[in-house]
Write a structure and sequence with these properties.
Blueprint (H helix, E strand, L loop, with lengths): L10 H9 L3 E6 L13 H17 L5 E3 L22 H17 L4 E6 L5 H14 L3 E6 H4 L1 H6 L14 H10 L48 H35 L1
Parallel strand pairs: 1-2, 1-3, 3-4
Helix pairs in contact: 2-8, 3-4, 7-8
């Protein structure tokens, strides 16, 4: 635990951060199956690294502190494969609302959900909206791959498979960056693809049980992944997330200052 972490401080120190205009970043992740080759903590490990690197890079440009990673999410579509822990969507939504309410009571006025698992996205967005309706706070929410979409396209990340996909080459490369001993040797070189009719659209869903995660619980073959690719993906993503966090927190702070002057 470092001085980036909410849990590293006393209640008095956190009250001072709240009064000082700090924004709490809440990393949202999952514990779920990632095919036959990746650990079930993949989304949690990736999300935590992205969050930490972005806060470090933001430095003094934004007042940020990181809440504990919420390492269980909405993963009901993975349960049949085993190795998965999941909350129902209604429970998960209420948990996000309760976390926001707790921070509000603790004096924080700015909250950001930073997501690392696709199954969380709908409940995250709804909770972010509803928190602003119930409490006098500013919220923002986003998944890291959406924030970095253009930057990842610029480096042609999709050449190795869907971005982010699920347990395919993209996530495998990132896990190789985190776990240098992880090897892709022996992984299948071919994997049936699931064609999405919504991939170019925003806030549109179409799917069927058993195929939402791809055939056999993963979207694409991971044999093309390398550690160098993973290092590059993390660098590109962290930069994009950093820029968004700075922009978002500065905007929220300026609007908060305007409200207090009126």
């Amino acid at each position: 635990m470092t001085k980036l972490d909410f849990g590293a401080y006393t209640r008095e120190e956190l009250k001072a951060f709240a009064n000082g205009g700090y924004t709490v970043i809440i990393p949202l992740a999952a514990t779920e199956q990632h095919g036959p080759h990746l650990p079930v903590y993949t989304d949690t490990m990736i999300c935590e690294r992205v969050c930490r690197e972005a806060i470090i890079q933001a430095g003094s440009a934004a007042k940020l502190i990181m809440a504990p990673v919420l390492s269980i999410g909405c993963s009901g579509h993975h349960l049949e494969f085993g190795g998965t822990l999941s909350f129902s969507s209604s429970v998960y939504y209420q948990m996000l609302m309760d976390i926001g309410r707790s921070l509000h009571i603790g004096g924080f006025k700015q909250i950001i959900f930073l997501n690392g698992h696709g199954g969380n996205e709908w409940m995250m967005q709804q909770a972010a909206v509803d928190l602003t309706m119930q409490y006098s706070i500013w919220t923002a929410s986003a998944s890291y791959w959406n924030l970095a979409k253009q930057a990842l396209m610029d480096i042609d990340a999709q050449r190795i498979g869907p971005v982010p996909g699920h347990a395919g080459a993209f996530e495998t490369a990132m896990m190789m960056s985190l776990l240098p001993d992880l090897k892709a040797d022996g992984l299948k070189k071919e994997h049936p693809s699931t064609i999405s009719i919504t991939k170019e659209l925003t806030n549109v869903f179409a799917g069927r049980r058993g195929l939402i995660t791809g055939y056999d619980g993963y979207t694409d073959a991971a044999d093309g992944a390398t550690k160098d690719m993973g290092d590059l993906f993390f660098a590109v993503i962290a930069k994009a997330v950093t820029e968004w966090l700075i922009q978002s927190t500065n905007h929220m702070q300026s609007m908060k200052d305007n409200d207090e002057r009126e």
